[in-house]
Design goal:
The protein has 169 residues and is mostly helical. The protein has nine helices and no strands.
């Protein structure tokens, strides 16, 4: 009950604050409050206003916008937001890692591996980046057929010919 009351107070401050926000930092905090309440659309709007009001917040705002889109399972938009983050802060390994995860969720595995590789190159000591890449590689290895498509077709044809031969006998 106490937790719900605190959340309600935060939400009220965020709603009231929206009418009075002027600085990028105020918009950024409003976006964070909305995000904490899973109000992703409102968070995105506030963070966009934060980026417009204070360009020094743009990389962080776009990173968070990517998180909000991912929270709504809108991975294409998340990727676009993280691309903006990367354009503003090309040395951000976490943006590359999150982009890799979104790409993997969309089945764009080669692009995902490339994004993970950049994250690992930028911060080779971060175990999460290696773990995310390894999980994707392991899942790809499990889904690969031990037979190539050509070998599989030939195997089916040979099986059909053998079956036809045995029926004639």
């Amino acid at each position: 009950m106490r937790y719900q009351a605190i959340l309600l107070i935060i939400l009220c401050f965020a709603l009231v604050g929206t009418a009075y926000a002027e600085t990028g930092e105020e918009w950024f905090e409003i976006g964070s409050a909305h995000f904490d309440n899973s109000s992703f659309v409102e968070a995105i709007s506030a963070w966009q206003k934060a980026a417009e009001a204070d360009p020094s917040l743009s990389a962080n705002a776009w990173y968070n916008i990517g998180l909000a889109y991912a929270g709504m399972e809108q991975y294409e938009q998340a990727i676009q937001a993280w691309d903006k983050t990367i354009a503003l802060a090309p040395e951000s390994p976490i943006a590359y890692d999150n982009k890799g995860t979104a790409l993997a969720l969309l089945g764009r595995n080669d692009e995902a591996l490339a994004a993970y590789d950049i994250a690992i190159k930028l911060d080779p000591d971060q175990a999460k980046f290696k773990s995310d890449r390894d999980m994707l590689v392991n899942s790809l290895n499990k889904t690969k057929s031990p037979l190539s498509p050509v070998v599989a077709v030939v195997a089916v044809l040979v099986a059909c010919l053998l079956l036809a031969y045995h029926r004639r006998q």
